[in-house]
Description:
The structure is a single chain. By secondary structure, this protein is of the alpha/beta class. The radius of gyration is 20 Å and the shape is globular. The protein starts with 5 loop residues before the first strand and ends with a strand. It has helices spanning 21-29, 65-68, 73-89, 98-101, 115-127, 138-142, 146-155, 170-183, 201-209, 248-253, 282-295, 313-326, 339-342, 349-363, and strands spanning 6-14, 36-37, 50-51, 104-109, 161-164, 189-196, 239-247, 260-269, 304-306, 334-336, 365-366, 384-385, 391-392, 397-404, 408-415. It folds into two domains: 7-253, Thiolase/Chalcone synthase (Peroxisomal Thiolase, Chain A, domain 1); 265-413, Peroxisomal Thiolase, Chain A, domain 1 (3-Layer(aba) Sandwich), CATH 3.40.47. The model has no long low-confidence stretch (mean pLDDT 96). The chain has 14 helices and 15 strands.
Amino acid sequence: MKKRRIVITGLGTINPLGNNVSEFWSNCIAGKSAAGLITKFDTSKFKTNFACEVKGFNAEDYFDRKDIRKYDLFTQYAVAAADEAIKDAGLNFEGITDSERAKIGVIWASGYGGISTFEQQLQEFHSGDGTPRFNPFFIPKIITDIAAGIIAMRYDLYGPNYCTVSACASSNTALINALDLIRLGRADVVIAGGSEASITPASIGGFNASQALSKRNDSPETASRPFDTERDGFVAGEGAGALILEEYEHAVSRGATIYAEFMGGGMATDAYHLTSTHPEGRGAALGMKASLADAGLNASDIAYINAHATSTSAGDLSELKAIASTFDDNREVVISATKSMTGHLLGAAGAVEAILTILAIRDQLIPATINTQSIDQLAPEGLNILIGNALKKEVNFAMNNTFGFGGHTATSIFGKVF
């Protein structure tokens, strides 16, 4: 059977660098940092008091007031990003048949779901007299699958609908699952992505306890510095990214604008440690090689890698080792780490970075790594890490890496449509 081709026809995002795709891309290419002091809660007793927060988001632009209280912020971000992507794709759900609606799915990812609601409700319970006065929307606000369900209900879509959770690889996993659903003929269109709203006391405190976050409180804007000798941890971020995946002939038949082709994806596992990556990047290398095989490409075909590169000591090095082993015959491949600007959006990172990877192909322009000044001396030699300014370069195929606690790895590959 001929493999169905899958293309990207719509993009949408809410994230610390921009509340729409155009603003996001412009700020990324300009090399801006989204980091700043946390405004969501008092951080005076925390080891880290900064993050990359979404700025200027107004839920009333997307929901009636009565609905806002039903949805945690991670779901609000999800709907905002999905709305933009659907509009961008030119999808019109009016007048389509039930059978057509049954071929449109939603796969949405989150690592933490409604953590802010969870924290707030438990705090209220424990500060009271022990009477359980929980919000009637408490459970549907916190469960991680709810964003997928809300998006489907908003547009009356009947296709496959679920959430993927693989820590920081979650939304890249969602994209790969969506790719496979369309290939199998179980859907013609899938709205896929991820959202996170986890800049909360428990999240920041927990990551501080595990020594994962940067403590560069005197200079938040330079704290995320992937691969740098003086990196001291990642910078927490929040937001959402949405992509419209569509079967190629379906997209062409309705005259859709096509951003890129989704060539393939690969997933693997380190099977090594609770939170740390394998020292030699075992799972990362397996995932990248699986994605190349799935896409029918060679390492030499890839022009750009948007690295996972969170700015942690062990993680950055293991990924570079994995890239060096996978791309041993292609040391010209350009590597950059866009988390240096956005911070780490956790479960939403893969989708948001997929948008940047796709736009790099569209504009033949690679976003750079900012803040990094001196590459770790333990990094493999000869790697082409882009630092400082965006690079104009021919990009026919590009790779997007994401890895998560528990050893999860997910890699997607996008390409120009020929």
